[in-house]
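Saturday, quiet lab. Running sequence design on the structure tokens for the scaffold JK sent over.
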């Protein structure tokens, strides 16, 4: 890498390391949920059907089943999701967002968006925002192709990036 490439790469890595921690801290402080829990709730909220299978939810949140199962257990204990055996296959588990979970998510969104705006959106000029759209649009297909080659989900849910 030349100096310019190294500066760009190190800048990106720094943002990728700092931003998730800031988002997680804000959500925990203001809503009592982690960023990943927020992502799970958001994914269920935006799902096309009211019930989502655990395997599909893991795919859409770019998570492993064991991690997702642990998080869903915590969310279920708090009344935010409900898990039930799939009627057609008792080995599979379905998850649905409860009314309490929907309320928790809706309560969390405004302050979360406020932080996303203050840390990222408001730091950029309209031209830089357009450039960021172009940059992420250029990188994402390569990451999607790489995930597909590795057998991972090439199209994880975007709820956690939406704010």
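Result came back. Writing it out in full:
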């Amino acid at each position: 890498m030349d100096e310019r490439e190294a500066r760009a790469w190190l800048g990106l890595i720094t943002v990728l390391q700092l931003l998730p921690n800031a988002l997680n801290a804000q959500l925990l402080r203001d809503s009592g949920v982690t960023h990943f829990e927020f992502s799970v709730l958001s994914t269920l909220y935006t799902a096309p059907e009211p019930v989502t299978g655990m395997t599909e939810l893991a795919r859409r949140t770019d998570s492993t089943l064991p991690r997702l199962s642990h998080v869903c257990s915590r969310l279920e204990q708090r009344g935010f999701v409900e898990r039930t055996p799939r009627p057609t296959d008792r080995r599979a588990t379905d998850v649905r967002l409860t009314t309490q979970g929907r309320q928790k998510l809706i309560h969390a969104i405004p302050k979360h968006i406020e932080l996303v705006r203050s840390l990222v959106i408001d730091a950029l000029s309209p031209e830089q925002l357009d450039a960021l759209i172009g940059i992420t649009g250029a990188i994402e297909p390569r990451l999607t192709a790489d995930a597909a080659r590795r057998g991972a989900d090439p199209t994880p849910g975007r709820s956690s990036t939406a704010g």
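Notes for JK: The chain has six helices and three strands. The CA atoms of residues 1 and 20 lie 26 Å apart. Ask whether to fix the surface positions before the next round.
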